[in-house]
Every structure is written in C-alpha cells, then in structure tokens.
Amino acid sequence: MYKRVQSPLMRLRSLAELTQQQLADVVGVSETTVRNWEKGRSTPTLAIDQLRRFCYALGVKPKNLPLDIVITGKISEVVGVLDEFDRLPDDLSPQPIQGHE
Q: Which residues does 80 contact at the CB level (< 8 Å), separation at least 6?
C-alpha cells in the first residue's frame, strides 16, 4: 500500500490549519508556488515582509524553518527581522491571519 509522506512544510501548514491557497495569499505568492515549495521543486525566495508573514502564519521562527529560504532585502532589515523573532518565545504558535481565521 502506498503511504503519502508529508513534507515538513506541509506538516507545519497543516498544523496551522491553512490551505495552500491561504498560505499563498498570506505570503503573496501563488498556490502553485506553495505547492512547489512543499514538493521540494523550488526554494522560497521571500522579501522581509513576506518572511515575517510566512513565519507568523506557520508559528515558527525563521531559524527553525524546516527548509532553506532565500531572503531578499537590505542586510540591516534582514538582521532586524531575525532579531525580532529571536526575542519571541521558542514555542511560537501560528498567528491568526486576517480573513483566514
């Protein structure tokens, strides 16, 4: 019997009770893009504001993401958002997203 194995990103998204489309809407990408991330076909390339929304929606700090990501933006902004998340508790839980509660 074939057993479907969930990717770590798919597992996080499921725990956050988000569909691929909802996560895509939150981050500002297409549903196909999220699907490709989950299947390992592409690596997320996120701007600072997208990274913030992505992490809060999934309830995970950037350093604990189960996949590699490319962050675009000024180094000072990247360091700032990483510091912002470092000040949060390790057991960060998914945050309600407007329009997706």
A: none
Run of H or E residues at 48: helix 48-58
* Count of all residues that appear for the chain in the document: 101
Query: Which backbone phi and psi does 2 adopt, to 5 degrees?
Result: -80, 130
Per-residue pLDDT of the chain (101 residues; tens, 9 = 90+): 555 667 999 999 999 999 999 999 999 999 999 999 999 999 999 999 999 999 999 999 998 888 888 999 999 998 998 898 888 887 777 776 665 54
Instruction: Write down the pTM of the prediction.
Output: 0.82
Task: Give the chain's domains with CATH numbers.
Answer: 8-86 (1.10.260.40)
